[in-house]
Amino acid sequence: MKNCAIVGINWGDEGKGRMVDLLTEDYDIVVRYQGGGNAGHTVVNEKGKFALHLLPSGILRQGVVNILGNGVALDPENLLTEIRDVEAKGVAVTPENLKISDRASLLLPWHRDLDALEEQRLGDRKYGSTKQGIAPFYSDKYQKKTVLAGELFHPVELREHLRDLLEWKDLTLTRVYGSRPYTLEELLRWLEQYGETVKPYICDTGDYLRRAQASGRSILFEAQLGALRDLDFGIYPYTTSSNTLAAYAPIGSGLPSLKLTEVIGVVKAYSTCVGEGPFVGEMFGSEADRLREAGAEYGAKTGRPRRVGPLDLVATRYGVELQGADKIALTKLDVLGYMEKIPVCVKYRIGDTLTDRFPFPAELAQAEPVLEYMEGWGCDISGVRRWEDLPEAARAYVRRIEDTLRCPIPYVSVGPQRDSIILR
Ligand code: GDP
User: Cys bridge to 377: 11, 14, 152, 393, which one at CB 3.0-4.6 A?
Assistant: First the structure.
């Protein structure tokens, strides 16, 4: 019986969706356990190119059951759009292959409003939010002021609950931000339109997973974003508002006592970071433009250009530790084919001190990258499928990363397609 989590080691966008899409072949169930529709996995397979935001990547495999766990931010409006998008490409989404936890909280329209209003208030000190309402959603969840998906089956109680929440939320909207209030009728209409459409998928997914586990079915846990965006251990406050770590998978899925049998950490062959916050190795100018273009580094949700830099081994080792990764999947190695010399960030300089430890967030602004250069291979490796067929310089690059991270790299991805993978 296998329970495996596939998680990001860095700032997100490592190519997790691509790895889940590949590995779902060996799993019966795929669970998303945290986050919302604020990021995106891009998956390319024989059905086309998909930008998935909230739907688990297993939705693209026939026979796989996909679960949105209690830890996710369930935005029924966006989920519906996403379901329609994948259905338009020939992927069926039914209560058999998508199940939503009755304990997942609903992301309501005011969460998006509050996200935008707060970024606007912050002006040039903004966090770089995708304005999908995620931060206001999770703060409300921890204040116990959200609606659980399962409440949709209890309309009388739901109406009373909404009335209470509305009274409180309208105070914030109008008196703190000078924005417009919501009315109960408006919210009920919204729930009628979107809540009703997701209702058929809602069930006790914890119970489903416990039974699945007891009957020996294998479960893959899919994370959003990466270790450095974890609310508790990332680059706070430029983190996301949930826990992106594998350790949270059992809780956010509805199987709190589960022990993971494997954690696969996804690392990109260079670094990218979207939005604001410290990014020690950041490249600028034409060097950055070249890498951004080569890797098509634009946000899957927003189209924002991603900040790029050399592979940051300091941050990556910290990410491997946080995730407790047993194995690494290294993605986008093909992108570096144009470089003569490949920079790698091996240490940070903070004042007079050199360190390979990832520092406390407040120290990051002073940290400067210490770079080493490795030989490039100067050719297109996207057609390579066997380790021994990779140029020696590319193998040396992979081995160098493996040695520094002290974690094996059995998967090397050289293209976005399902089969563009080298298994070592
Ligand atoms: P995720 O959120 O971690 O799944 O990452 P994204 O989907 O945002 O970003 C990964 C992007 O890189 C997607 O567009 C993938 O199709 C693409 N990709 C994944 N692996 C590879 C690879 O090995 N080579 C290339 N060239 N592209 C890849």
Answer: 393
